[in-house]
Design a protein that fits this description.
The structure is a single chain. By secondary structure, the chain is an alpha+beta fold. Helices cover 14% and strands 33% of the residues. Strands 3-28-27-26-25 form a five-stranded mixed β-sheet, with no helix packed on it. A four-stranded antiparallel β-sheet has the order 4-31-30-29, with no helix packed on it. A hairpin with a 4-residue loop joins strand 30 and strand 31. The radius of gyration is 28 Å and the shape is globular.
């Protein structure tokens, strides 16, 4: 690639084998489980023929509690909330014998025990404890807007960008937001730009989007100037990082990385070949899924050392790049599930890289990974997301890990991912959560449907 010049955790269910004696007790019973969502009644009824159990009266009464326990677990694990109303069990007639009552009660207890056993889930996943520490902030956008990125200059002033030309600013730590007027800068009033990335370092800020556009500010966002660039730029803008005074780095979907040190007047290529060219050259190297036709990335993150990690558009492998390298390094994914996204929790990919896979898988890199090897070892943590994909992971200064994903899912880990707690703040939000970010104690979640959440512990 030649330089160019620009002028101006899904849930795992445990298999349960029921003892033969228990199966024998269940067999005579015709058990009907009916569930209705949206606050309607959940009923569990059981009838029996002539089951005879010595001492069934005492045992059955003890088992009755299992029915309610099972019902509550089933309701809490369903995709939609179920408000269970109080159940009643009535005898078919006032004249039923004591033995008949015990027979029916025993069958009900056994059925409840079976349902309880079959509803077991992996205890290492998200715990039953639930918290709610995020508030939805009203935003001056439509309910079809998707937020993609944000950046703060200080603890008060920040910016958030997204689809449909969304470019907002706050002066009160994210409590309220208002649009930034870019009409004079953009000029193309008929184009709803999709702003992909924004980054500030001090008062100097950069933002990129598509159709291809770049803007630059040197006064904390009070004014913005459009930055021209070459029409030969390979790929679409994915991300921009503000560096030192007048410096910035951009990356495209083709894996092209360019850096400027003079406020965008000139840019120098950091990679000598695009991902397409790299994969075409090394497709026989043993990297699964690597071919000329899969040479684009749709997810990319830069660490504090200037190293990048990108996920192939089809999710079948990933790539890393280190400053000074001529090309990207492709890596096999060591999982049967495709990669959703990847990122970094600290300042170094080799020690803090993470990966999410389809159906809610979350993995973290083992220490001191060799980025020059085609395979890197990860260990997986079970988050029990109910099958929803996890789309972002971040780490607070206090060590807490936060994950967000599809269906408004939010999870917290206070022990470095060994176990997870459900945060139900997003349960009622019709949105997917794409990013979670913390600036000191201030946290924000960026979602679809115009949904924007603020941390409020």
């Amino acid at each position: 690639m030649e330089p160019f010049s620009m002028q101006a955790t899904h849930a795992q269910r445990r298999s349960v084998v029921l003892p033969a004696a228990l199966l024998a007790l269940i067999a005579p019973a015709a058990v009907l489980f009916s569930s209705r969502t949206n606050g309607l009644q959940t009923a569990v009824k059981a009838t029996t023929h002539t089951a005879r159990m010595p001492g069934a009266g005492t045992a059955a009464l003890n088992r009755l509690s299992l029915v309610e326990s099972s019902r509550r677990r089933c309701a809490s694990s369903a995709p939609m909330r179920v408000r269970a109303e109080k159940e009643t069990t009535q005898t078919e007639s006032m004249g039923m014998s004591r033995r008949g009552l015990f027979q029916n009660t025993a069958a009900l207890g056994v059925a409840g025990a079976a349902a309880s056993a079959l509803s077991l889930t992996n205890p290492r996943g998200a715990r039953a404890e639930k918290i709610s520490q995020w508030d939805k902030i009203p935003m001056p956008v439509s309910d079809t807007t998707v937020f993609f990125d944000m950046s703060f200059l200080d603890d008060k002033t920040g910016y958030v960008v997204g689809s449909q030309g969304t470019f907002l600013t706050t002066k009160d730590s994210g409590l309220s937001w208002k649009p930034v007027d870019l009409d004079k800068v953009v000029g193309d009033e008929d184009i709803n730009y999709r702003w992909e990335s924004i980054s500030f370092k001090g008062n100097e800020g950069w933002a990129v989007g598509k159709p291809a556009i770049m803007v630059h500010s040197t006064d904390g966002g009070a004014t913005w100037d459009r930055v021209p660039f070459s029409s030969k730029l390979p790929g679409d803008f994915l991300s921009v990082a503000a560096l030192d005074d007048g410096g910035a780095e951009i990356i495209t979907s083709a894996g092209a990385i360019y850096r400027t040190s003079n406020a965008g007047k000139n840019w120098k290529a950091q990679v000598l070949e695009t991902i397409d060219a790299t994969l075409n050259r090394v497709s026989s190297s043993g990297v699964a899924g690597a071919s000329y036709y899969s040479g684009s990335i749709n997810s990319v993150v830069r660490d504090d050392k200037g190293q990048y990690i990108g996920v192939n558009a089809r999710g079948n492998f990933y790539l890393t790049w280190k400053p000074g390298s001529d090309a990207w390094m492709p890596h096999n994914r060591k999982t049967i599930r495709r990669i959703v996204t990847m990122g970094v929790l600290g300042d170094d990919l080799a020690n803090t890289m993470w990966m999410t896979t389809r159906a809610g898988g979350v993995s973290f890199v083992k220490d001191d990974a060799n980025l020059d090897e085609p395979e890197i070892e990860f260990y997986e943590t079970n988050i029990n997301s109910g099958g929803y994909g996890i789309l972002d992971v971040t780490k607070r200064e206090n060590g807490d890990l936060w994950c967000v994903g599809g269906g408004g899912k939010i999870f917290l880990s206070r022990n470095n991912g060994k176990s997870w707690i459900v945060d139900n703040s997003g349960d009622d939000q019709p949105a997917n959560f794409y990013k979670v970010k913390f600036y000191g104690d201030q946290g924000f979640i960026l979602g679809s449907g115009g949904v924007f959440m603020r941390f409020n512990p």
